[in-house]
Records
---
Amino acid sequence: MLALFGSLAAVPASASEKLYLYTENFPPYNMSATGRAFEHNENSIDGICTEMVKAILQATDLDYVIKLRNWNYGYNRALSKANHGIFCTTYTEERAPLFKWVGPLAQNLWTVFAPPGSTFTMEKLEDAKGKTIGGYRNDVRSEYLLKRGYDVSVIDSDDLNPKRLVLGQIDLWIAERLAGPYLASQQDVEGLVPVFSFNDVDLYLAMSPDTPDEVIEELNEALEITKKDGIFDAIGTKYGL
């Protein structure tokens, strides 16, 4: 990945250039307001992180567009193109040098779900060894499990994993404690059983390393302004956090 990243790295950008920000359908953090898989403008994109990112941007003079795509698409563009970013992205030590970071914006509790009616129990993560776990490409949870030798069946988008779980195509699903049931309900899947939670992590806006430092500074300063103004707390309250 690092070799690929190095070969794709862009010429450093100007602070006056437009920002291109990507997100995915990951409700209630980021989601289409119309139920579509892709969105081309910010007015059609909702969610906790989306509203927080919009509030930050509106406190700056920066020009920007926000688009909703699948995670793998947006993640790779943020890796390789100056002034491109993706949210909400889990901050990890492995990812730290790949991006410049704005945040934290929210928290994320990783959770393993079993299908409705399951009696399967877990006391530790290792209890999932020998099970096929649903995930998706370039998602930090999937990468975490794969590196530790778990059997992870990854697809391009997380949307199909609740159905795969119900149909028995996977045994378990790794998702987020709030977002998992929300996403499942959008696919008419109810009653998923949360069997184990771990790794409470921070979520950020991750920007290409070729994004000028002054842009990152302006975004982080705007973040502090919106926090002091109570905007972040109001967004969290709106979504029941």
---
Amino acid sequence: MIPGETIADLEREVAVFVRHEHAASGRLGRETYPDLTAAAYGLLAHLADRGRHRPTEIAEHMGIASPVVSRRLQLLETLGLIERFPVPNDARAYLVGLTDEGRRRVAEVQDVRGRRLEALLASWPEHDVRTFAELLAKFNGSAAGPARHCGATGGDGRG
């Protein structure tokens, strides 16, 4: 059993991290692409990581209501960053995936974010950074749980 004080310390530090990261992501996004909100970029990054998916799968994975995801996807489609793909054997359903421009924008934002992280961690020994990445991956895996992963329904792995 983990002591309550340890959990409280962790909760506080995670909350601080989330607030800082959310603020930094918003700034970086606006500086890099003023037409992209942090939420819209989150959908782009999701598609870049996981390939084509149905909007309902994205909503379920991200814990966002389907109408909200639909509005964000509409914006991304209008900007030419995603496109729709038909689902074989289901004329009403579609998948969404990145366009070449969408992939380019995600790569550029990831590059900017990577340089920011590198600057923040410049004084850390490489071993500490590696350990932090491994522990954060372990935490994220625990937080995601089986119900929070996108299914492979209709996805072909391509963006």
---
Amino acid sequence: MLYDRSNTGQIILVTGAARSGKSEWAESLAQKSGKSVIYVATALENADDPEWQARLEKHRRRRPAQWQTLWVPYTLCNTLSEILPPHCLLIDSLGTWVANGLDQDEMTWEQTTTQLINSLTQARVDVILVGEETGWGVVPAYPLGRTFRDRLGHLIRQIGGIADEVYLVTGGYALNVSCLGEKLGTTFNN
């Protein structure tokens, strides 16, 4: 499907493995935009999990103080439609957002992701999204793990198909794969 993006911002996808530096790279891109940055955290805070809270705090400390933070674990589409220029949205992370929606049945999930793609293509601000690459390891031995991996992989591919730039962060390097590779179609059989 082709989207008219003449009145919209830029879409940038930053993907990579755990601890690869993808969030740091996305933050540097947001900083370089020269725009007012709104950091969209998709995580759910959990006071009963000190290790998770420490991870969130590490991200918090790394961000510039003037960045606004929104906690949006579910309703990314609303946020994308509400924010107006001259902002830059940094959404971190798609994997956490997918995990938050694992209770949705397949039909509802497909509607959710379709709404997200449509919202991204209509966003009037630059949007930088951070997404994990999960499919490079073993196939999870349990159904929910496979659902997560498949949903996230499919979503990353869909967003990559509409993105202006796609970066893969690995081995201490951010590679602009949108310049190095050839874009595949955005639709495929699961």
---
Amino acid sequence: MNSAGKQVNDLFLEVTATGNMKAYEQLYHIVCSRLIHFSASICGSFHLAEEVVSDVFVSIWQKREQLTGVENPKVYLYVCTKNRTINAMKRKQLHVVPFDTFYTEALSIVPDVEEHLLSSQVARKIETAISSLPPRCQLIFRLIKMDGLQYKEVAELLDISSKTVDAQLTIAVKRVADTIRLDMSDELIADFLRS
């Protein structure tokens, strides 16, 4: 588990076990942006996505004592966000799109320049390469490589097999690497794709 994933787990545990408001706020700030982008990729609306993520966090606070047994908080947050987004779309009578046609523009977040020691120009090239992937490949790539979820977690979240996740990630990594290879050293590419 990467350090961000461990931090999410630790903060979630702190919130559910002790009701620590400071930990709750930190948890929100760490995952809020990714959850909003994930929700917006499903519903096509950042406004609705912000409402959904806000509702997810209100629910977590209200049910915190019942959530002490959650084994994987990050996946739990994504599943809650997905379910609440779909429910909100149904309530507003919006068409729920299949995940192969998610609004991939909403997923677009330039890789963290400081974390990966990338120049902003290289980060933009990587984002362009990722954005050119088909929706399913792009979503799986982002959930695994950028959000730190495991293959099994992504399979569970998207209701697909782990083999499908593996196949889609293989396609995504190859296409991204091929797209950016002309402009970057092999070490930098390998470092980013490994992280």
